């Protein structure tokens, strides 16, 4: 689809993991980005020896933060594929999830779920500068800016774009508890992504469906000439 590999966006704004800086923090972050990494894969990403990676994994496993399953890749003995355990989820930002859930539950009780959808769309549009008219710039510039904004909001986002299409991947959802109670938030977020980038958006992976990330495929409406209001499909 004409996109380059996904670079980390706005790394300086990535959420810090309280109590887990350095190598262990890096390992947790990489497993958040890509569940199922092996020791070899982690070595390449964090720049440590196999023994050092195994040591940190054992410590994280003892704390209940990491788990593994056996995975076979071609010929040879199976390797261990590591992923974050459920207990690691609270280490990552949850933003304003509790307050927002309470607010939406009150709105739903008084005015119905339709009012919740309207409120969500207005709230999320306000998180993106000029969200109603779209982010300015080329498709690549728009994608980079939106990925940076979403990362700063705690979504651990990466983006890449070519002239006609792009991909936005969000490895974390800081309002997952809200989305589980009000799945309408996911549709609202998809609509805001389309409006911000100026195109049509298809979600191809979904955290709530058990995938390791939310992945949006974007087809730009303007061919790179400027943002237009888009729609989801």
Structure description:
The chain is an alpha+beta fold. It has two domains: 18-91, Arc Repressor Mutant, subunit A, CATH 1.10.10.10; 93-220, 2-Layer Sandwich (Muramoyl-pentapeptide Carboxypeptidase, domain 2). The chain is built from eight helices and six strands. The chain has a four-stranded antiparallel beta sheet, with helices on one face. Strands 1-2 form a two-stranded antiparallel ribbon. The longest helix has 15 residues, at 97-111. The protein is globular, with a radius of gyration of 19 Å.
Helicity range: 40-55%
Assembly of the depicted chains: single chain
| CATH architecture level-2 label of the largest domain | 2-Layer Sandwich
Distance between the termini: 18 Å
Major sheet details: 4 strands, antiparallel
Secondary structure class reads alpha+beta
Spell out the helices and strands N to C: HHHEEHHHEEHHEE
CATH structural class of the largest domain: Alpha Beta
Radius of gyration: 19 Å
Question: Short description, anyone?
Answer:
It is built from eight helices and six strands; from the N terminus they run αααββαααββααββ.
Key structural traits:
233 residues; alpha+beta; Arc Repressor Mutant, subunit A; Muramoyl-pentapeptide Carboxypeptidase, domain 2; 4-stranded antiparallel β-sheet; two-stranded antiparallel ribbon; 6 strands; disordered N terminus; disordered C terminus
List the helices and strands and how they pair.
Elements: H1 22-33, H2 39-46, H3 50-62, E1 66-71, E2 79-84, H4 97-111, H5 113-125, H6 139-152, E3 157-161, E4 165-170, H7 176-181, H8 184-197, E5 199-205, E6 214-220
Antiparallel strand pairs: 1-2, 3-4, 4-6, 5-6
Helix pairs in contact: 4-5, 5-8
């Amino acid at each position: 689809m004409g996109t380059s590999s996904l670079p980390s966006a706005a790394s300086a704004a990535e959420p810090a993991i309280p109590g887990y800086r350095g190598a262990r923090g890096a390992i947790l972050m990489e497993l958040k980005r890509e569940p199922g990494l092996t020791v070899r894969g982690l070595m390449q990403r964090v720049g440590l020896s196999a023994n050092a990676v195994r040591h940190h994994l054992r410590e994280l496993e003892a704390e209940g933060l990491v788990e593994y399953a056996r995975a076979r890749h071609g010929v040879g003995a199976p390797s261990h594929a590591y992923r974050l355990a459920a207990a690691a989820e609270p280490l990552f930002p949850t933003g304003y999830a509790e307050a927002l859930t309470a607010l939406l539950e009150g709105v739903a009780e008084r005015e119905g779920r339709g009012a919740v959808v309207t409120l969500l769309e207005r709230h999320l549009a306000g998180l993106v500068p000029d969200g109603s008219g779209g982010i300015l710039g080329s498709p690549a510039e728009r994608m980079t800016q939106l990925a940076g904004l979403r990362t700063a909001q705690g979504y651990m986002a990466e983006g890449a774009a070519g002239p006609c299409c792009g991909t936005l991947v969000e490895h974390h959802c800081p309002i997952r508890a809200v989305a589980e109670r009000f799945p309408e938030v996911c549709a609202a977020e998809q609509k805001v992504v389309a409006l911000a980038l100026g195109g049509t958006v298809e979600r191809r992976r979904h955290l709530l469906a058990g995938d390791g990330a939310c992945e949006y495929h974007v087809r730009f409406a303007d061919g790179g000439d400027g943002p237009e209001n888009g729609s989801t499909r």
